[in-house]
Amino acid sequence: MTTIRESDLIDSIADALQYVSYYHPPDFIRAMASAWEREESPGAKDAMAQILVNSRMAAVGHRPICQDTGTANVFMQIGAGARLEISRPLQEVVDDAVRRAYRFDANPLRASVVIDPLGVRKNSGDNTPAMLHVEMVGGDKVSVHVSAKGGGSENKAKFAVLNPSASVSDWVVQTVETLGAGWCPPGILGIGVGGSSDRAMLLAKQSLNDPIDMAELRRRGPGDRTEELRLEIYERVNALGIGAQGLGGVTTVLDVKIRSFPTHAASLPVGLIPNCAATRHVHFTLDGSGPAALTPPDLGDWPEILLEKAGANSRRVDLDTLDDATVASFTPGETLLLNGTLFTGRDAAHKRMVEILDNGGELPVDLRGRAIYYVGPVDAVGDEVIGPAGPTTSTRMDRFTDRILGATGLRLMIGKAERGPEAIEAIVRHKAAYLIAVGGAAYLVSKAIREAEAVAFEDLGMEAIYRLRVEDMPVTVAVDSSGNSIHKSGPARWRRVPQPA
Q: Quick check: pTM over 0.90?
C-alpha cells in the first residue's frame, strides 16, 4: 500500500497555490495568444495584449496575475490502495497548506474568504477554509487538482433544471448573454449536465481543469454528441460579440468544457461556471516518493507583445485638475492615461461612507473633483509601492453610486465591466463618467502606481481607502457623462450570425 505523508501533501498543495498565482497554464496562454492574433476589435485586442503582457510579467516576477488570488479549490482523487498518513481531518490538513501559501512572505496572496457569511463576514485572514472535494478511486496514488477561483467569475455561476427535451445550448447562450463582463472574458465556460443539482455544479467546476483543446477539436471535427455541443456553444457565444472585457469583439470564450453524469428521467440539471482571464490551475500526483515537483512553464509560450505607453489614440488626463469640460469630453471606447491622485474604495468602504453620510458625519477623505478606483490590492513586497492592483466588478457599487456622487462631488469611477441602469442614471444626473481598467492585468496596472498610502478605514484590510499617485495608468472610457456605454455599443457592433459548427 502506498503511504502519502501529511507533510508531502501540505508541501505540494502550498507550492501549487503559489505556482498558480503567477503562472497561467501554457494551454491557456497559447489559446489567448491565438485569439489576440485573430481579434479584429481594436479595444478587445488591446485588452488581450494587456492580459498577455501582464501574464508574462507575473511569470517572471513571481507575483500574482490578478489581485483577486481567489478561493482555494482542491479536488482530490484518493486511490483505494493509497493511505494518507494523517491523524486529523483532511480539511484541516488542506487548510494548513492554504494558510502557508497565502502567508508566504516572498509572495503574499490576498485573503478574500470571509467567515460567518450571514453575519459580520469577518475575513479569515489566511484565505481558509479551502473548497475541498474528495473522491475515492482505483489505484494506489493520490491525484490532486488545485485551482484559484476569483470572485468575479464565480459570482456569475448559474444553475437550472431544464425539461429533458430542452436545448442545453439555448440555455447556455441565453444565460451568457445576461452575465455582462464581470467574469472578465475571454475565458472558459465550464458546463455540468446531469446528476443532481449539486453534482451538476461540481461537474461544471471540475471541467474547468480540463485541457484547452478547442483549436484541435475545430480542426478534426466532433466525435460524439458532447463535442458537437461544445462546438455549437463556442460558435454561438462568440457570435454574441461580447468580446474581451465586454468591449465588443470576435472572441468571448476560448473554450467550452462539458462533463455529464446520469440523471433522473424527469430532469436535465445544468450548471454553468465561467473561468476568467485569470484562469489558474495545476495538477499533480502523489505516489509516496515525496512532494510533487512542479515544472515552470517555458517563457517561450508567451508571445512577444509590446504595449505602446501612449499611442495616437491615447489621451493623458491630469486627475488633479479635473473639470466639467474635461469629463464631458470623454467618449466611450476612448483610451486615457491617468496621472495624479487617485483614491481607492470597494464594497465595504462604500457601505461605510454611506452610513457616515446618512448619520450626518464627515467623510475622512475629500472626494470633490476626484476619481475613485474600485480595487483591493495585494500586499506589497520588497521595494514595491503596492502589490498587483486590478479592478473589481463595478456593479456591486451601483447601489451606492447616486449617494456618493451627490454628496461628495466625485467625478470619475474606475472598475471593470458594465454599470447597471441605476448607476448610469446617477452618472448622467451628476455629469460624472465611468472608466474601466483591464481585469486580469493586475500586475501591469500596479506598475503605473508610484505612491500608495492608506488614509481611511484601515481596519478593512485590503478594502481600506488608499490615496494613490499614478502615472500613465491605462483605462478605457466605458460610460460618458451623457450615459452612453461601450458595453452596449461595443457588443452590438460585433454581434453576428453564428456559423454552423
A: yes
